[in-house]
Amino acid sequence: LQDEETRKDYDYMLDHPEEYYRHYYHYYSRRLTPKVDVRIVILVTVCAISVFQFFSWWSSYNEAINYLATVPKYRIQATEIARQQGLLNKTKEKGKNRRSKEEIREEEEEIIKDIIKNKIDIKGGYQKPKIYDILLFQILLAPFYLCKYIVWYCWWFYCFTIKGQEYGVEEKLYIIRRYMKMSQSQFDSLEDHQKDTFLERQLWIRENYEVYKREQEEELKKKMAMDPRWKRYRRWMKNEGPGRLTFIDD
Fold first, then answer.
1. Other residues' Cβ atoms within 10 Å of the Cβ of residue 28
2. Where are the domains of the chain?
3. Which of 127, 133, 134 is nearest to 61 (CA)?
4. Across the chain, which distance is largest between two alpha carbons, in Å?
5. CA-CA distance, 66 to 120, in Å (whole number)?
6. Which of 13, 28, 82, 246 could form a disulfide with 87 if both were Cys (CB 3.0 to 4.6 A apart)?
7. How far are the Cα atoms of 3, 21, 62, 136 from residue 17, in angstroms, in the given order?
8. What percentage of the chain has pLDDT greater than the value 90?
9. How many angstroms separate the CA atoms of 220 and 227, rounded?
């Protein structure tokens, strides 16, 4: 009877002893109700998701580095930089410090990967993870991002709607990205020559973008029509199909 609510239930039981089942219900509901703070559960869940996100991104980033280390274009460049910096010469030591060929090969591989990490800016879903991108920091920084967006929107409305200023390169690319319904990381992963093509064709103008979109759709249809795998798939859908039933006598 240390709790005020339980004391009220006890007094009510003394005044109404005939309500037998009601007393049992209140007793067991208080005994079996979890006493864990919901806020703690939410915080632990968010932290667990954030940790999983961070390590998952690191794994994807390392996979991208390992893949780039096998691409001849990047491997040759990284090897040349390592030779210029004298890093590969250090691996081939003589005398007592002499190591096996396997150890030398592994060290050279790590040197090449480190150069690729430092010299190549990986964008998109395989970019180097940042701690501020995980869920926990996104929630904590949500008010800041909201205020930043409001200020940016007011600036955009004032400059380009009220004053009628011309768009700059960044503004044009932003409009194009919105038309394409791509995230910032997806758009950043595009090659520079693709973005130059977007600007040359003035795709920030809605009419030009619609023409470009139709051209891309037609080109995709042509590629799919010439693709042998797509031809086999259409042939299978026409002759068999996923929902066709056949009854064959043995």
1. 10
2. 39-91+100-129, 187-241
3. 127
4. 96
5. 13
6. 82
7. 21, 10, 69, 51
8. 24
9. 10
Tokens linked to 8: 């009220």
The CA R_g of the chain, rounded to the nearest whole Å, is: 32
Structure tokens, 4: 């005020």
Dist CA 58 CA 75 (whole Å): 21
| CA pair distance 245, 243, nearest whole angstrom | 6
243 SS3 class: coil
188 neighbors 160 (Cβ within 8 angstroms): no
Nearest by Cα to 192 from 101, 107, 112, 123: 123
Least confident segment among 91-95, 105-109, 191-195 = 91-95
For the chain, the distance separating the N- and C-terminal CA atoms, rounded to the nearest angstrom, is 79
Q: Which of 34-48, 189-203, 234-248 has the lowest mean pLDDT?
A: 234-248
The type of residue at 118 is N
pLDDT at 40: 84
